[in-house]
Model the fold of this input.
Amino acid sequence: MDAGIAAILGATVGALGTGGAAFATGWWGAKQARLQIATQETQSRRQLRFNHLSERREPRSVAYVALISQAQAAQRKYSTLAPQVLISQDSATAELADGLETENVKMQELAARVSIEGPASIVEPARKLKEAVGKCSFFCLVMHMENSELKRSGTAPAIAAQNAIELSQMIDLFTHASRLSLDEDISGLHTSESP
Done:
């Protein structure tokens, strides 16, 4: 083989090697760029979700605290009223029963707000808490009815005690569910809602 052909073959092999290396480098760089873009998009979505949940956390927290505070106010009124209404049903206890019913109406409004603020996992504990306050209020109102079967049955003290226990349990349940909901908001475990 003469030197001219060898030089041409060497140049051809060198050109093909250089072209192949340039293609492989370009292909690898493009693949890395696509991967970097996808990673940045994922991180951006995570950051947007975190920001959204952080913005929603404060109104949720306010709504949860308002409902718990209202339930505790109703609990205090019921704790005062229930023993009194078991003994007598006069104008003073009737006024207290009306006050407890006012607390119950406020509970309805606050529970609706909690249901709107969400998430879905908090709706059932809020409903149960609202119903527990409603039972306490209903008990006191029924005790003031003139021909109340509840007064004649002799079961009123047991029902009064059961209502108090249930209300306390529902306050604890809702408080626990609220804490979990707020913790999930920040940790990103809540995936059922979209931003």
Summary: Residues 189-195 have pLDDT under 50 and may be disordered. The CA atoms of residues 31 and 69 lie 56 Å apart.
